[in-house]
Structures are given as structure tokens and as C-alpha cells.
Amino acid sequence: MHTGRALETERAVCMSSMTDREAESNHRHPAWCDERECSANPEAIAGKEPMSNWGRHQSGRRELAFGMYAVITGAAAPWPTEVYVQLYTRFGGDPVLELHGPDAGPFAAALSAVVSEALVDDGAVPA
Ligand SMILES: [Zn+2]
């Protein structure tokens, strides 16, 4: 796992071998990105400003149930970056859960299995 500083150093090295035009043309919004929610800043990326100024791609709300919703997000960069799924309650604020993209599917499947187990009424336990 990268620390923030190690990752920034690695990416700074990567950026130094890329021209401004290449950096800008390599930047694109993922298919799930809603540009109204997105804070990606291609000029900051192309201008080799600190990564903290590059912004994040973000989807719109994906309604789940009971007012809960999910948002897809990932750092803006001229290369593929990690994607996260964040879960929020209807009250907003900070996400109650953030899953690394590849972990979200197995998590949802495991949760579904727990829900299925909870909903089985085989009569084994007296009410
Ligand atoms: Zn975007």
C-alpha cells in the first residue's frame, strides 16, 4: 500500500516524463462521472500543480433504499486511478462506509447473503 507521500512522489516522477499536452489529453472523465458533481481540474493537472489541486471525479447519487444512496468517486489524474464506492444515509454528512471499487462487489454479495439468512423463517427458533 502506498503512503500519500510515496504515491505523490511516484506520480510526480510519472508527470515529469509527460508533456503538458499529453497530461491534458490523457485526462478524461470516467463513464460514471457526472460533470455537475466532478471537481476534476485538467488545467491544474496539465500545469503540474500539486495533486491536491487536481480534484476528483464523482458520480451523481445512486439511490439505494430507505434514503440511503451511493456515490462513485476517484481521483482525477492523467492515468487510471482507484475507484471508491461511498455509502451515505439520507442525512448526508460523511460517508458511513467507503469501499475500494474491487471490494464493493464481494461486500454486496456477502451482505446479500446475510440478508437472505435473516429473512429465512424455517421455524427453528420460537417467536
Ligand atoms: Zn469527472
Q: Could you characterize the architecture of this molecule?
A:
The protein is an alpha+beta fold. It is built from four helices and five strands. The chain has helices spanning 4-16, 20-26, 42-46, 101-119; strands at residues 56-58, 62-63, 69-75, 83-88, 97-100. Strands 1, 2, 3, 4 and 5 form a five-stranded antiparallel β-sheet that branches. The relative contact order is 0.11. Zinc ion is lined by residues 29, 33, 35, 38, 40, 57. Residues 29, 33, 35, 38, 40, 57 line the site of zinc ion.
Distance between the termini: 48 Å
- Report the count of strand segments: 5
What's the order of the H and E elements? HHHEEEEEH
Principal-axis shape equals elongated
CA radius of gyration is 19 Å
* Low-confidence regions: 6-10
Largest β-sheet summary: 5 strands, antiparallel
Estimate percent helicity: 25-40%
Strand content: 15-25%
Q: How many domains would you count in the coordinates? A: 1
Number of helical stretches of at least 4 residues: 4
Structural class: alpha+beta
Mean pLDDT value: 83
List of distinct ligands in this structure: zinc ion
